[in-house]
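Structure (tokenized):
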């Protein structure tokens, strides 16, 4: 069960699994938004905490078998992408911008993101992506403020 959660139903086994998982998160957010599902402040916060807790626990459970921060663990990319889009209106433009920004920060790991990987176990696996998501979200919020999209 933890392997399925950590790999997001097997996405982690694909080449480029991190990007595929982040894109799958975008697709899920897009489909939810345009099917009429709205998530308000409190539920969004609770969903975020739940996703982070589940991802941290699942990554911790698979670490003995897969090793530290295995490429197969992509639940962290889903969580990071979710954080990137938290409280951002879901449009195709904002999702594309969020995906590009999140993957940029996640891959290049500037501004203390790489230090988060040094945290122990599942926390280290998740927190670098969460911080990448925070930076992406801040830039998206600035883009919204300045009406760039």
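Design, position by position:
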């Amino acid at each position: 069960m933890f392997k399925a959660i950590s790999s997001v139903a097997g996405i982690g086994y694909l080449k480029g699994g991190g990007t595929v998982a982040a894109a799958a998160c975008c697709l899920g957010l897009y489909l939810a938004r345009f099917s009429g599902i709205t998530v308000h402040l409190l539920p969004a916060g609770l969903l975020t905490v739940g996703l982070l807790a589940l991802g941290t626990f699942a990554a911790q459970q698979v670490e003995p078998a897969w090793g530290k921060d295995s490429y197969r663990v992509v639940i962290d990319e889903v969580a990071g992408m979710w954080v990137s889009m938290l409280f951002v209106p879901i449009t195709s433009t904002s999702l594309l911008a969020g995906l590009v920004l999140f993957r940029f920060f996640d891959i290049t790991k500037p501004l203390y993101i790489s230090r988060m990987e040094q945290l122990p176990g599942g926390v280290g696996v998740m927190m670098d992506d969460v911080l990448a998501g925070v930076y992406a979200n801040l830039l998206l919020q600035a883009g919204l403020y300045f009406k760039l999209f």
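Reviewer-requested clarification: The helical segments are 2-6, 17-34, 41-66, 75-85, 92-108, 113-116, 121-145. The chain has a mean pLDDT of 94.
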